[in-house]
UniProtKB/TrEMBL annotation:
Keyword hit for Metal-binding: no
Organism: Pontibacter ruber
Alphabetical list of Gene3D superfamilies matching this protein: 3.40.50.360
Protein name according to UniProt: NADPH-dependent FMN reductase
E.C. number: 1.-.-.-
Residues covered by the NADPH-dependent FMN reductase-like domain: 3-146
InterPro entries, alphabetized: Flavoprotein-like_sf (IPR029039), FMN_Rdtase-like_dom (IPR005025), NAD(P)H-dep_reductase (IPR050712)
Amino acid sequence: MPHIAIISSSVRTGRNTHRVALFFEKYITAHNLATVEILDLKAYNFPVFEERLKYQEDPSEQVLEFAEKIRNADGVIIATPEYNGGYPASIKNVVDLLYDEWYRKPIGLVTVSNGPFGGTQVMRALQFTLWKIRAWVVPAMFPVPKVQEAYDEEGNPTNKEASYKHAHRFMHEMLWCIEAKQKMEADEKHEQQTK
C-alpha cells in the first residue's frame, strides 16, 4: 500500500486550509487507498531557512524528520491557500529546503480560497516552482472555493456527495502517478541489474 504525506501549509490564525487536509486524511483512510499522515507546517513552526538542507552544517532533528517523511512518501498532497494570487511563504520555505527529496515525487495540489475561484491562480505559481525542482505534479487538481462553507473545522464536507466525487477523481489520478513511478523505478532497477 502506498504512503501519502499531506502538507497542510497554512500557518495563519483561523486558517481554513487545514480543514481540507483533514478531509483528505479521512477520505484516504476510509477508502483504504494508502497510509497517510499530515505534516502540519503550523505545528512544525519552522524558521525561515538560510540554507538548503544538504548544505546545513547542523540541521535540527525536526528538519531531518520532515525531510525523511517527504523522502519516504510515495506521493505528497500539498494543501495550500491562495494569498493575493500566490502561495504562503511557509510552503515556499519547505519546498526550497529540500531538492533531491522532490525528484519525480508525485505531488497533488489542493488549493483553497474564501472566494469563488478555489485558489486556481496559485496553482500556476506552485506548478512552476515544483517543475523547477523536478517534482511530478499530478494533472488532476482539487480547488476548493468558499472553503469556510465547504468544510467544517474537523474536515467534514457540507456536500459529501460532491466532495467524494471530486476526491475520487483526484485520488485516482494521484494513485495512478504513484503506481507509474513505482513501475518505472522497478524497470530502471531491473535494467541496471541486467547490464
